[in-house]
Amino acid sequence: MVFNQLKDGVKWPSSIQVCEVGPRDGLQNEKTLLTVEQKVELIERSVQAGVKIIEIGSFVHPKAVPPMADTDAVARRLKRVEGVEYRALVLNIKGLERAEAAGIRKAKLTVSASRAHSLSNLNKTPEEAVRGFTESAEYAASRGMVLSGAISTAFGCPFEGKVSLEQVLSVVECFREIGVKELSLSDTTGMANPQQVYEYGLRVKEQFPDVTWNLHFHNTRGMGLANVVAGMMAGIDRYDACFAGLGGCPFAPGASGNIATEDLIHMCHEMGIETGIDLDQVISIGRYVQELIGHDTSSFILKAGKCSDIVKA
Amino acid sequence: MVFNQLKDGVKWPSSIQVCEVGPRDGLQNEKTLLTVEQKVELIERSVQAGVKIIEIGSFVHPKAVPPMADTDAVARRLKRVEGVEYRALVLNIKGLERAEAAGIRKAKLTVSASRAHSLSNLNKTPEEAVRGFTESAEYAASRGMVLSGAISTAFGCPFEGKVSLEQVLSVVECFREIGVKELSLSDTTGMANPQQVYEYGLRVKEQFPDVTWNLHFHNTRGMGLANVVAGMMAGIDRYDACFAGLGGCPFAPGASGNIATEDLIHMCHEMGIETGIDLDQVISIGRYVQELIGHDTSSFILKAGKCSDIVKA
């Protein structure tokens, strides 16, 4: 039989960049507090597995997020590795100063795209919240630190339902004004769908071609990897994921968390998309995380194994 | 099919057809046996919710699949509804005769695309297995019954790993030779990935444009809905799903089952794709199924709720 070339041209990226957010977005929700040593071990094993970007924690008030209280100590203990980026979440200039003191060169500022959510949380619109980062941006620039921005509830929000593309673009504009060139659209509440991800992804890339775009999905409603596929179709090649699929959503207790690093990498490798990461090592990190926190998680590959595992030799 | 064309050429269907396979592919794996009345109730509630195609059971040897032993009784009890198709799985002419006697007009013949799997199970190649249906096809034609074909392990198989597109096309060819015009590619073992689904979907449609194509996915490795999205991109608009996400994979005990009907419909409606099905009714059927079988299942929406559920009024 002779086959014709594919007619329609959906193009997958030949490789994607996976950012491990487990030490921050995963562990911040866990009741079991890990030690500094355990966190450092997880991060260094991720580096060993080939992960090049790791969100190692957050410099926020220790009482607000107790599992993140030791981020300074974790950051100080990490071996710096050529080509590996350790980034941390900060909320303001205080966090930025702590990050710098601990040797972290890349900080992520976060803002909610939802006007209602932002007003309720901070009594500021999203745009005002971003403009409030101006001093932080100047501080970072003067110290040679790099800032990225995370736009949370970029697709949907419990306070106002679907978040419009116009609203997202307006927040992006503000981030650009303060000089931030790397941005993430985050589906914190698991409300994004593939059509929306594709549409928003295409438009932000079109409107802001000089921005480096990241996507961050939770698998709350089963659409996590479908959203990754939609993001790839829109030409975005940087994705957050979390070891063992930790993390959750305060609005849906018991629901699935972040997409699992092992699930994302498994899918990519099956699709012929390179990640530069050793899947078996990531799986073994995931199992270790489950041991440390003492409960089952929403990872698929930790349950079912890789496709190749069930193939008889 | 009408497509909403987006700028860079990704086309989503404006509507899809969802086939409820729960009464067959879901319940056949459950330890708790439902009564005929309970099965009829589930099927009739699905019809009420707007489902137009339901796989009501299988006419196989009662000892081989005890939960399906009462399919004759179920079929006899069902009210016929204009525009609703009740289909059943059969393995041979005996099953077809039982289906006919019970008033079922549409039967699904199944064959494994994997040579190694088919030889091990039936001592026949997939092509020989399909040709073995010739008598069934003639019987069906003479009785005015309609046959569809399911090609299981169409993407991957524990006996031989990835199943090649050439192998799948060769099985399709045999089905066409015996006059079957509706076919399903089934990812029984949860080994399909979006790149492969897109590629196989495009090619089978191109090569056999007169066939009505269906896709059947399990969420074993988290790629279920991602594969649906890839199938839609290839222009396929008929998908199997199972209430509450029942079903499993003998090769990965404890893993997720079929994609859940409520998860699929929820994603489609969020994407603006019509299904003609009432999501709330489907969710309530899913909850009832969980009650009947007495355990939790791998449905996301039954855990997390719809996106709209968390939006404050």
UniProtKB/TrEMBL annotation, chains A, B:
Record keywords = Lyase, Metal-binding
Q: Does the keyword Lyase apply?
A: yes
Boundaries of every Pyruvate carboxyltransferase domain copy: 16-283
For the biological process aspect of GO, one term held by this record is: ketone body biosynthetic process
Q: Name one Pfam family in it.
A: HMGL-like
The molecular function terms in GO held by this entry are:
hydroxymethylglutaryl-CoA lyase activity; metal ion binding
PROSITE patterns, per this entry? PYR_CT
Task: Please indicate if the UniProt record lists Hydrolase as a keyword.
Answer: no
Domain of life, per UniProt, equals Bacteria
* InterPro entries, A to Z: Aldolase_TIM, HMGL, PYR_CT
SUPFAM superfamilies to which the protein is assigned, alphabetical: Aldolase (SSF51569)
Tell me which family the UniProt entry assigns to this protein: Belongs to the HMG-CoA lyase family.
Would you tell me the protein name for this molecule? Hydroxymethylglutaryl-CoA lyase
**Species of provenance:** Geosporobacter subterraneus DSM 17957
